Amino acid sequence: MLRLKSAKLLLTGIVLAAIFTSFGVFAKAPALADTASVIAVAALPQQGVQTYILIHQGGPFAYEKDGVVFGNRERLLPLHKRGYYREYTVATPNLRARGARRIVCGGAPKTPDACYYTADHYGSFRRIVP
Fold first, then answer.
1. DSSP assignment, residue 97?
2. Catalytic residues
3. Which residue of 15, 30, 35, 80 pairs with 84 in a disulfide if CB–CB is 3.0 to 4.6 A?
């Protein structure tokens, strides 16, 4: 009788784990942007270089949302308090909307501690190096 209860408990646990995993209840640990994933300023698209320069000059920026707080909800960047990161649009040629490309910088607006480039709307980031 005890073996039957143990087997039922084990089976129930396996089934619940499979259900929760398939619905994303157990989320993966965030893949933080690390030093292995870098891009040189010169390797950015031309519009990215222009945006990077404007960030360090304090603007002016082409899009109203440039410079707004980036919440890092995806938790792909190193964790900091809300307000640390700001996002800026990297224009995409022949596209009316803002597109997917962004530069996200942390720290003071004109002198950020670090900036990150994403070409896939926050799906992945590469740290920008001089």
1. S
2. 87, 121
3. 80
CA distance 76 to 27: 13
CA 104 to each of CA 7, 66, 78, 83, 88: distance values in angstroms, whole numbers, following the listed order: 51, 10, 12, 12, 6
| Count helices and strands in the chain by DSSP H and E runs | 2, 6
Cα 41 to Cα 43: distance, rounded to the nearest angstrom: 5
C-alpha dist (Å) from residue 93 to 9, 47, 48, 101, 103: 58, 9, 11, 11, 16
Cα–Cα dist 98/44, whole Å: 17
Beta strands 126-129 and 38-40, pairing class:
parallel
